[in-house]
Fold:
Amino acid sequence: MNKSRWGKLLIAALALGLTFFSVPVASQGQTAALRANDTELLMLGTAGGPPLRKDRSEPSSLLIVDGRPYLIDCGIGTIRRLVEVGIPSETIGTIFFTHLHPDHDLGLVDVMANDYFHLDLASDARKINIYGPPQTSELVEAAFHYISIPFEVFAAEKPGFQLGRPNHGLTSPFVAHEVVGEGVVYRDDKIQITAAENSHYALMPAQFRAHFKSYSYRIQTPHGVVVFTGDTGPSDEVVKLAMGADVLVAEVEEGLEELRGFIDHMAAQNHWPPARKQEFAAHMEKEHLTVDSLGELASKAQVQSLLFYHYNPQNKAEQQARIAGVKKYFHGPVLAPMDLDRFCLSKDEAQSEKANFESCGQNTADQE
Ligand SMILES: [Zn+2]
Ligand SMILES: [Zn+2]
Structure:
């Protein structure tokens, strides 16, 4: 999108008195290229879990609906990917966490620090809303307290400075909202989000499962339905949530046989006793999705298309193997992206029931 189009959009938004954050054109010659009349998925980070990778950042996806960005998960590296793509983090007014494992949220503090640096709080009353499972408030408060330490140093050179104030005298523009139940958990004039508790914590003792929650999200947009699995194992709840979705954005591990080989390798390399090996195998099979269990889930849910994320192929051949594995069960389009790939969901006005989902930027994704 060119600069004048953004200018017009911004003027139109202001004329309508809309309070959402419009995304301005990127600085330094980069192109934000957000589109006004569709829903776009920008894959900021497509890796799953530690260890950190050179080529893929930790999980983070930007859903852009009619030009308004929503961030889903915020792993380490999210801010760098936003800078690369030319989207100022402070223009993202709403962030959602699927769950609070470290690969999904430790990039939040960088995003918040960059937001805080760029928001002019004296003249700007905007809030940044952060939604997630129980403990999201604690996470956001801790992150703000953390960034308030270095920011206070600037304040010390200004008149009236006092030591020892709460949050070092800084006012937080961040508001946490905890998702404590299933059903519709968020609604605005563009999207509605329905949450379901998935099986990512299936092996956790029941008394702790009441405290720790892992969600999948179904997001209804004007252009179709996008479902994020977050991290999950096989789950009837996720099948129900994803039923008939236009796009299922899903985590995917290797196939069962390959996975067992990997588990044997890990056990031998780390000299795991049998119980440790069994525990790891159960975690991978019951709390994550292999290509087989994802294929079955996508097929049962009758989704229109499948987009991988939170996956760790080491090369193109492994990436293709993931697609082939899922294709044994699911016959719709399967896309295997790299970081910064973009996909657009739009509705053809002539056939308003049918959504088109296609690659619309960078185009490095494998597809079949
Ligand atoms: Zn994860
Ligand atoms: Zn996880």
